[in-house]
Amino acid sequence: MEQLALLLVCVGNTRKKVYQTLAGEFTGIEPPSWIIITAGFVRKHGHSVKVLDANVENLDHDETVARIKAENPKLVGIVNYGQQANTAAPLMTETRNLIHKIKANDPGRTILLTGWNPSALPEKTLREEACDYVGEGEAFYTYLRMVQGKKLEEVPGLWWRENGKIRHTPRAENIQDLTADLSELAWDLVPIGKYRSFNWLGLRDLDSRHKYASIYTSLGCPFDCSFCAIRATHGGERKMRFWKPEWVLKQIDHLVETYGIKTLKINDELFILNRNHFIPIAQGLAERKRAGKYQLNITAFARVDSLKVEDMPLLKEAGFNWFELGIESGTREVLDLANKGSYDRENIRHVVKKAHEHGIDFCANYLFGLPGDTYESMQNTLMLSFELMAAFPSFFAAMAPPGSHLYDDCMQQGIPLPEQWIGYAQQGYEFAPLPTKTLSPKDVLRFRDFAFNAYFRNPAYLDMMEKKFGKRARKHLEEMASHDLKRKLFEGDTVTVAV
């Protein structure tokens, strides 16, 4: 039997360290979208590929190593990707542990490490990790040329050690025709029925959370928010590349008809932006609903300044019951420092009000501790969240993931960052956010955790959610809010702070 060319691995043993006691039913388990795309691309070129998702299969590192040895691939690709660029850094701690475990038990195994973090810091990654190679950029052609057996100098975006020195090749140019070149998605290589939607996305039907998938319909982003690390993989290219709407609809048809998917997350950094792209997709989904073929529960990312009232009826009919809306701050000056749009509080109020009138809910993102934040401005953001009363706010503390402008600023200014990658995990014990000129990391984190409690334990909010989604949804949210996360920053404090 011919030896397997490539085994792509999604690292396990991460959920409890990233989410602590929330790691069970209160979190989602995302399909490894970048792995699914990469596997389809390499297989399309005639090479054998398998996927080992140790995360969804809940494998520890010993079990993962055993599975790798059993598959005996020529190349192991470990892919350090969250669905968005800012979620990948915490995964590097267990990525490191897995690589060490592989090298200790299977020392001759060749490992290529790719993803957001390695692409942002390829030289640092190669110096610190025990992998054989690091891939910089989107890495589709890095993997393909490696399995084709090309000389290292002919593999784009590759970093390696040679005679005590680090060498590398230029990263590959980003693929422009996604529909032609990235046409195949290897859904058959992952246990799709084991993935689980975020809890908020499943509040209408908590039993259907495993009928879930997520896809990209575009890559890249034209914006340059200071806290975002997307440029690490896409090479600073500030534009979007799109799969054709008909291709997207075909993929969604396949997910529904083959796997019975009911809930869909669109992973694009900004799905609601280019009307020539998202309107035909919404129209196609609405047509399928009218014909009685299927109706999905869908979420996607949007910006306040791109979600238009005139598009809301079609989007709702198509199944977009949710949007993930990056509000970030209630203070214009803080948003300006973060390079975040030109909208103000009135724009936010108007968009949210109109969406609610059309039956569209939000997972609204708020960030505390951005440059320029003070207690007063963070309080303004919290008060705005209460005013808007989104069905599910995501309260974050500002971090500087590798690849972001904030990371560069911290390096230049000597601002301390977490000593371990797990310190970037928002719900993690070791989490340590950025300071501001007037606030310490502990100040920011304490406010973030206070905001969570104040919102999710608010009787008015819970009453609203029970009226909208039912008693079971309310009970689920109450149980979620009852979990007290431990924080290393709060050790020795006399006040206990919950999430």
Explain the overall architecture.
This protein is α/β, with parallel strands linked by helices and 499 residues long. The protein has 2 domains: 6-168, Rossmann fold; 179-490, Alpha-Beta Horseshoe (pyruvate-formate lyase- activating enzyme), CATH 3.80.30.20. It has helices spanning 15-19, 33-44, 61-71, 92-105, 116-120, 122-128, 140-147, 178-181, 231-234, 245-259, 275-290, 312-318, 332-337, 345-357, 375-388, 405-413, 441-456, 459-469, 471-481; strands spanning 6-10, 49-53, 75-80, 111-115, 133-135, 158-162, 165-168, 212-215, 218-220, 240-242, 263-266, 297-302, 320-328, 361-368, 392-397. The strands form 3 sheets. Strands 2-1-3-4-5-6-7 form a 7-stranded mixed β-sheet, with helices on both faces. Helix 12 links the parallel strand 12 and strand 13. Helix 3 packs across helix 4, helix 11 (275-290) packs across helix 12 and helix 18 packs antiparallel against helix 19. The chain is globular and about 60 Å long. The protein starts with 5 loop residues before the first strand and ends in an 18-residue tail after the last helix.
The parts where pLDDT drops under 50 for at least 5 residues are 495-499
CATH architecture of the largest domain: Alpha-Beta Horseshoe
C-alpha geometry:
globular
Helix content: 25-40%
What is the arithmetic mean of pLDDT? 93
The largest pleated sheet is described as: 7 strands, mixed
Instruction: Please state the structural category.
Output: alpha/beta
What is the CATH first-level class name of the largest domain?
Answer: Alpha Beta
Biggest sheet strand order reads 2-1-3-4-5-6-7
CATH domain fold name of the largest domain: pyruvate-formate lyase- activating enzyme
The N- to C-terminal Cα distance equals 52 Å
Portion of residues in beta strands equals 15-25%
- Report Rg: 22 Å
Domain count: the total is 2
